[in-house]
Amino acid sequence: RGKDEKYKVRMPKLRVAKEYKDKRKSIDDLERNIFKFKKSSEEKSKKMEKEERSFRETFMYHKEIRVLATATAARSVRSRRRADLPLTAGEHLDVIEAAQGPAVICRNARGRYGYVLAEHLNFR
């Protein structure tokens, strides 16, 4: 084996014009991104359906889910209970229903549902 490797001829790399190489790379990336987008949107929709099912079970909500208003979180709030929705400052929320008392049921961009105190929201 040692002798075979000793006499092995190394082939020089073919040089490719940088412009062509960059163009080829961008086309390959574009094709890959299309497939990744489809896959991630499928996963996202499955996750949203799962969140909706758990929301309906937790809150015993059997009506059609309609967005009444959109709001922005005024400040960050951690959730204390499972039914509460944790907030980050500036996060956009969809208000689903105004429940009794100071809390409203909201949905965040990731599809999670929960109670949020109205005093933590800025309505547009």
From TrEMBL:
This is FYB2 protein. It holds the Pfam family hSH3. Residues 55-121 form the Helically-extended SH3 domain. Keywords: Phosphoprotein. GO terms for biological process: integrin-mediated signaling pathway; protein localization to plasma membrane; T cell receptor signaling pathway. One of its GO terms (cellular component) is plasma membrane. It comes from Regulus satrapa.
